[in-house]
């Protein structure tokens, strides 16, 4: 199997109307990875994704997909499934017709019943797209992206508008694609999904690739947090932290497990109830919130 | 291309608004022209009537439908969806315009066959067919160009008026007044040379060489329209 990256982006820039949307962005996606491209609104991730998908021409720099310019559709697209952020289906076609049309144009082999089965839409096969709910349209979109189990799948906000059950079903389908060897590029506003699923994360901010790495690598740079409330008469806890006016202690620490253990032993020794105790490692949400303070 | 065309035909047949404005109305207008063919013969000639039918179908069944279809498919991101597949741009465009073109062609064949049966056949069918094909190519090219300036199907009701009505008006002007006066102006306007060519081919009397020369302005419009289409056509809604 080839060890060359599935996606290779180098010094990518995109400027339109005097606005520099993407600035010197470089990254690679390896075969079999789930790579999450995340960013604040207007960070440039959609523009970057559209260039990699072959929908846009970069102002400078290069994006290669399977070693090809992604705009060479006949070379790249038979290996690629794309779930767009917005539906783009004809309201006058049925679900079955829509999948059959897009599937046939991917040049991959598959069956309509199989891909509709993945997203539980077989019972809606004869329904016009105009009569589908927003969530059903997202599932239809995923079905077309999964047609023929492509080697590379782009998922642009895949779970937006889905209820929890449909979300779980969709992630099960994504896991199945990955088991079959698909590489996945994901953008999402649900950071917990990226935190749970992504092998690596590219974090874009104001057009640049601000940080890149595994979730552990990204979150390691920020402290974990322990929160609890003490009775007014209680002595000071052994771990250094700050006390807010409402009596809540907030301890930010890079040694979460050790400090938590020490705190619990102290509370037990002093017969103190740590009310509302919560402790957790840094999450991607915290990395996001730290973006603005990094500027 | 044929896969896209087949699904596009399904969409046209399911959309009542497109069906009525693109098929029923042009067909009804053309049928009424055939019904009143003697009146038209008195005003101009049978060839004038035949060229008016061609321009009417080309302007409404083809041109307006193409503009409306492409604007609609772009607005609901169907074009972007098709471009997310392995299909190439020209395959997508041909697939989308082929049904409207085929429907216009079938309509023309049917109506002109009835006209020939009730009022007499064209003197030179091949020349008439050449004029018709050139007109269809011109309106197709203008449709692609106009679609680049049209944001939505509703907007198409405005953007298509100048060319659809203008082309028919030029055809009526040339058909009724001939080209003895202002010949160059009339022939250079879109539809002018095609009307003269089709009128002469149906009525007879003009030399084949002179008639073939009349193809040149129409083909020039085809190239100009395709050039403009290349510049103006958008695959996604403007942001």
UniProtKB/TrEMBL annotation, chain A:
Keywords: Antibiotic resistance, ATP-binding, Nucleotide-binding, Transport
Subcellular location: Cell membrane
PROSITE patterns cross-referenced by the UniProt entry: ABC_TRANSPORTER_1, ABC_TRANSPORTER_2
Cross-referenced Pfam families: ABC_tran
SUPFAM superfamilies, sorted: P-loop containing nucleoside triphosphate hydrolases
Signal peptide stretch: none
SMART domains, per database record: AAA (SM00382)
InterPro entries per record: AAA+_ATPase, ABC_transporter-like_ATP-bd, ABC_transporter-like_CS, ABC_transporter_ATP-binding, P-loop_NTPase
Membrane topology value: Peripheral membrane protein
Protein's name in the database: ABC transporter ATP-binding protein
Taxonomic classification: Bacteria, Bacillati, Actinomycetota, Actinomycetes, Propionibacteriales
Automatic annotation (TrEMBL), chain B:
Main location: membrane
Membrane spanning stretches: 12-35, 47-71, 92-119, 125-146, 158-176, 212-233
Keyword Lyase listed: no
Localization of this protein: Membrane
Topology versus the membrane: Multi-pass membrane protein
UniProt-listed Pfam families: ABC2_membrane_3
Keyword hit for Protease: no
Domain spans labelled ABC-2 type transporter transmembrane: 44-226
Swiss-Prot/TrEMBL keywords: Membrane, Transmembrane, Transmembrane helix
Protein name, entry field: ABC transporter permease
């Amino acid at each position: 199997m080839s060890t060359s990256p599935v996606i290779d982006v180098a010094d990518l820039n995109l400027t339109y109307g005097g606005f520099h949307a993407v600035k010197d962005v470089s990254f690679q996606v390896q075969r079999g990875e789930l790579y999450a491209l995340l960013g604040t609104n207007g960070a440039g991730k959609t523009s970057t994704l559209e260039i990699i998908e072959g929908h846009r021409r970069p102002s400078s720099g290069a994006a290669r997909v399977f070693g090809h310019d992604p705009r060479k559709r006949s070379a790249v697209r038979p290996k690629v499934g794309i779930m767009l952020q917005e539906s783009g289906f004809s309201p006058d076609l049925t679900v079955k017709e829509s999948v059959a049309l897009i599937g046939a144009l991917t040049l991959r082999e598959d069956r309509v019943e199989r891909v509709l089965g993945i997203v539980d839409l077989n019972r809606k096969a004869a329904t016009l797209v105009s009569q589908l709910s927003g969530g059903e349209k997202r599932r239809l979109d995923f079905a077309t992206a999964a047609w023929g189990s492509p080697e590379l799948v782009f998922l642009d906000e895949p779970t937006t508008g889905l209820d929890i059950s449909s979300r779980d079903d969709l992630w099960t389908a994504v896991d199945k694609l990955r088991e079959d060897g698909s590489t996945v590029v994901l953008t999402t506003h649900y950071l917990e999904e990226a935190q749970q699923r992504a092998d690596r994360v590219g974090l874009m901010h104001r057009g640049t690739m601000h940080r890149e790495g595994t979730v552990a690598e990204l979150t390691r740079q920020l402290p974990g947090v322990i929160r609890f409330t003490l009775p007014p008469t209680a002595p000071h806890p052994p771990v250094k932290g700050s006390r807010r006016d409402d009596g809540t202690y907030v301890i930010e620490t890079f040694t979460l497990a050790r400090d938590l253990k020490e705190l619990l032993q102290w509370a037990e020794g002093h017969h103190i109830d740590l009310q509302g105790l919560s402790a957790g490692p840094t999450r991607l949400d915290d990395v996001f919130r730290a973006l603005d303070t990094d500027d | 291309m044929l896969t896209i065309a087949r699904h596009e035909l399904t969409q046209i047949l399911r959309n009542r608004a497109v069906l009525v404005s693109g098929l029923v109305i042009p067909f009804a207008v053309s049928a009424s022209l055939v019904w009143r063919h003697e009146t038209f013969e008195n005003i101009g000639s049978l060839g004038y009537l035949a060229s008016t039918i061609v321009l009417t179908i080309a302007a409404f069944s083809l041109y307006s439908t193409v503009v409306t279809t492409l604007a609609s498919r772009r607005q609901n991101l169907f074009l972007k969806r098709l471009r997310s597949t392995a299909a190439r741009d020209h395959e997508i465009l041909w697939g989308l315009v082929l049904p409207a073109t085929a429907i216009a062609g079938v309509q023309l064949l049917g109506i002109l066959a009835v006209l020939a049966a009730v009022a007499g056949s064209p003197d030179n069918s091949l020349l008439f067919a050449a004029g018709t094909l050139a007109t269809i190519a011109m309106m197709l090219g203008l449709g692609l160009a106009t679609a680049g300036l049209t944001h939505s199907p509703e907007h198409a009701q405005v953007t298509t008026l100048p060319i659809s009505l203008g082309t028919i008006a030029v055809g009526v002007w040339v058909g009724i007044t001939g080209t003895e006066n202002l010949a160059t102006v009339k022939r250079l306007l879109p539809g002018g040379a095609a009307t003269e060519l089709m009128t002469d081919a149906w009525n007879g009397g003009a030399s084949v060489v002179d008639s073939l020369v009349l193809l040149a302005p129409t083909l020039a419009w085809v190239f100009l329209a395709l050039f403009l289409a290349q510049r103006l056509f958008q695959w996604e809604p403007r942001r």
